Batch of 2 targets.
Target 1
Amino acid sequence: MQKVRSIAQLKKNLHQWRKQNLSIAFVPTMGNLHEGHIKLVLAARKKADKVVVSIFVNPTQFGVGEDFESYPRTEEDDEIKLKEACADLLFLPSVLEIYPEAMETIVSVTKLSTRHCGKSRPNHFNGVATIVVKLLNMVQPDIAFFGEKDFQQLAIIRKMVNDLNISCEIIGVETERELDGLAMSSRNNYLTESERKIAPKLYHSICKARENVLLGVKDLKVIEKEQYDYLASLGFVVDYFSICRCDNLQPAKVSDNEIVILVAAKLGKPRLIDNIYFSR
Ligand code: PAF
């Protein structure tokens, strides 16, 4: 696996591959890689000749008081895992390489970004959309992979790529879970031992809500409130528990068929998110 830190070097390597007509898959990450990320790399491996992975802890998607400074940076371990997963190129730019001067341009997917996580993290999705466009422009992959755990992020990226005619296929990869159901996340490392035991209840709550939707409970607000209160009783500080339409993440109606249940809650230090989507 080659490792590059500059955009110029990245472009040189990509140019060689393009000359040989090789297809390129891209997996953008913020590092501290776990099995969920490796699943993305393996999915990418199957779909293209070459796999590029980026590790960049993007400052513009962190709000004031969030964990940008303390976000786990584990470059050596990440590199070993990526070699094992047979990635071809690791792009590890510095903040200065990506943002050499103050940006005046912001990419904003206006409606989708204001709901759910966007309410409590006001500039987060603008930061995500902008860095993803920058990275897609640098790598110009044929196909790019994102985890479904960040369901809203994935929806925003799909909308942005479509709205801006970016020629890259976007693939969502199923959430990787611990044996007890907890969705894998770098932020799980922040959980204390006792919080770690409670954390899977987040997943259990969305499963229970799905069961009730499928059983035909008509008032979706009642299901939401029941699970919200259940999580609060366990010590979660619930940000939202929402039963939505899959396509636009607006509140679902009883007549809607493609449903996603989205949840975000703080448990001690970390803010955890999860989701489950299904047809009925
Ligand atoms: O999901 C992430 O890790 C990040 O939001 C992403 C897509 C790499 C952009 O920084």
Target 2
Amino acid sequence: MSPVRAAARRKPVQDHRAHQQRRRRLQRLIGDGIAFIPTAPEYLRNADTHFPFRFDSHFWYLTGFGEPEAVLVLIGGRTPRSLLFCRDRDAEREIWDGHRYGPREAQKVFGVDEAHSITRLDAMAPELIAGQRRLLHPLGLDAGFDVRVNGWLAAVRAKVRAGVAAPGEFADVRQLIDGMRLVKERSEITLMQKAADISARAHVRAMQVTRPGMHEYEIEAELLHEFRRSGAQSPAYPSIVAGGANACVLHYVGNDAPLRDGDLLLIDAGCEVDGYAADITRTFPVNGRFSPAQRDCYQLVLEAQAAAIRAVKPGAAFTAYHQAALKVLAQGMIDLKLLKGPLDRVLESGDYRQFYMHRTGHWLGLDVHDVGTYAEQGKPRRLTPGNVLTVEPGLYIRPDAKVAREFWNIGIRIEDDVLVTADGRKVLTAATPKGVEQIEALMADD
Ligand code: GLY
Ligand code: MN
Ligand code: MN
């Protein structure tokens, strides 16, 4: 039995109209061409055990079909067709791994025009490609799939003397889908709100249970407990549970150190609900009370975040909220005597990077660092309603002889998920406490 594989299966999403509509939109973008969109490969760990399978996000966005070994084929132009290639039913395997749709049921449930056995793809692909002007697939994503596509093309080209036309234009299908995924639909926002709400509860639970002497992994376990008991399938990314100096390691995932009285705890954790991610960071004192230095630094990051969130609105450049956070943080570094002013010089020289070395956020959606460009023709992208992004300023102070000792090993990040709306913004993760008094009160409750 391979319990990991069985657990990783996604329950079927029953309403596939949204997926159908997305496929139609993509078919219009494809025009006179054919696109192949495979789901993620499944990797063997050893013997009959696989690494946990997680579908490809683009494939999921267009199908809602969660089984491995599947490829969606879309043909655009005047006679559009959608074809799903998937595994056959297999009575023996289904005893071990659970239900498989098989082409006949998949065609009905997932609303594609046709479904076929995945074993027929290599034979059918050249016939489907013949006569198309353009061929699209995720170019260079998977060397094995590139080789297969080249093989299909070679088979078509071998017949040109018989009057068969081979495509002459090749493109990466992801670019078209990325643009669609940047603007979330209502149903997607509903799922993101659910992921945000569950993740918020997990952060509250972490604040409530944390005590000096516990280990980072015990808090990680509380997060996982809340995610799964609420119906989230998994964390959306490896949880960061970083006490004290570990908070200054930006992608710390060891999560195995004891939590010390007087230290801060930084938790960057969010769950995945039906493919959609939440991404929340909170920082709070292990003993429930901020020290004066911790409080000063925390308030600074909180103010920087508030300024950044205000800068998220339709029409604003993507870079505007980073600039807003930076200005507040850099001034705060001067006020706390971490750096010497004036502000203009600190901003221009980049000296602030000693304490704030990352950008203020990224797109969020089916992937935690979601798809979509940040600039177009050299200019930052303008925000538009339906975009979802994170706002996550921070301050990370490593031991340094030039810095007052009370600040050493303070690592703070505050991260929320923000939806751009027609008249401004909505903070999807607003239920996660972040005020100093709010956190201290919550941690004081037994
Ligand atoms: N959790 C990853 C990030 O905040 O970007
Ligand atoms: Mn993030
Ligand atoms: Mn994060």
